[in-house]
Amino acid sequence: MYGSGKSDFIRERVRACDYLVVAQLFLQQNFLLEHPLKFEDIKPRLLGHWGTCHGIDVVYANLKAYFPHIDFILGPGHGFPALQANLFLDGTLEKYDKNATRDEKGIAYICREFSWPGGFPSHASPFTPGVICEGGELGYALATAYGSVLGHPEKTVAVLIGDGELETATALSSMNLNKLFGENVSINGKVIPILHLNGYKISAPTISARKSERELAEQIRGFGYTPIFANEKNFGQKLQELLNPQYRAVAKRTQNPFIVFRSEKGATGPEYLDGQKIAGNYLAHQIPLKNAKTSEKELKMLENWLKSYHFNELFSKETGFAKGVFL
Ligand SMILES: Cc1ncc(C[n+]2csc(CCOP(=O)(O)OP(=O)(O)O)c2C)c(N)n1
Ligand SMILES: [Mg+2]
Q: How many whole angstroms from 166 Cα to the centroid of ligand 2?
């Protein structure tokens, strides 16, 4: 049933994580869609962020597949359901929380407790394994990434920065930190910045998205990086190129790579609601179907959305997760 290439596993992993994200955001029961969705299955208060999550899942899966030994720093901490889904599938969550078992019970646990009184917060927080900064305040990811490799030449860290986040003074000024680190990596480790260019922040387009590719590339070059433009289809290939020793030798002599990852905000989610564009628009930022608990139409849209991931092919109550999703 499963292909042998890494890219098939990456797609399965992303589908599994995306499903778990949507289930965390909306469901208080019926987590495996064992019966048609009903209003009672939906949480009474829908609070969380969808728009950034698919992109995070894509980046996480590709990094895990191609750079399994590096650290990962996530700027958009509001994309917590995606981080949680990945930590859950990695088994990291279970190490620290015995309820997060990678079975039906564990799925129910992470979904029900997400953004729930007394449960998990809606944003990444110090309760999350590996998280030291409270998610929710944008801007520190790049500075944290540089700080984490200071004095550690053996370390490489990839850092995902939201395109809205890059408009904060903190993130934008942190672009200069490569100057303090220099081009010689014998004292400090290496930072691979990834700009999540999904085009939107909370309620408007981002400045980076409104620049031409050339203007953005020149800005990045001006900061002393080599821009690498990637999208969902070729992201893995670009990462493999970075791993190529020949490229690395060149990159060492010249400048650090800076990946610009173009993705559609809210991709794989609802496209339109009542004539309004959701995916690829700021309306995907938080909860796209906020009336799912009271509107038959939105409930049906949610059911179709969940079904689109074919989670039943990736998980069964009897045999657990398909091996591919663990990458
Ligand atoms: C310092 C700061 N200012 C404002 C906010 C409010 N805020 C939360 S999410 C968000 C938009 C973030 O957009 P982007 O970085 O593009 O992330 P995306 O969700 O698009 O991946 C903003 C402004 C915040 N969390 N922190
Ligand atoms: Mg954005």
A: 9
| pLDDT at residue 183, as a whole number | 61
Q: Give the H or E element holding residue 67.
A: none
Mean pLDDT score across all residues of the chain: 93
Whether ligand 1 lies within 6 angstroms of the CB of 280 is answered as: no
What's the gap in Å between 33 CA and the centre of ligand 2?
A: 30
Tokens of 280: 């690829």
Taken as a whole, the chain contains a residue count of 327
205 C-beta closer than 6 A to ligand 1: no
Residue nearest to atom 17 of ligand 1 (CA): 162
Give pTM, 2 decimals. 0.96
pLDDT tens for 178-228 read 988 866 667 888 899 999 999 999 999 999 999 999 999 999 999 999 999
Percent of the chain with pLDDT over 90: 85
201 CB within 6 A, ligand 1: yes
CA 165 / ligand 2 centre spacing (Å): 7
Q: DSSP letter at 27?
A: B
Q: Is 74 exposed, middle or buried (0-12, 13-18, 19+ CB in 10 A)?
A: buried
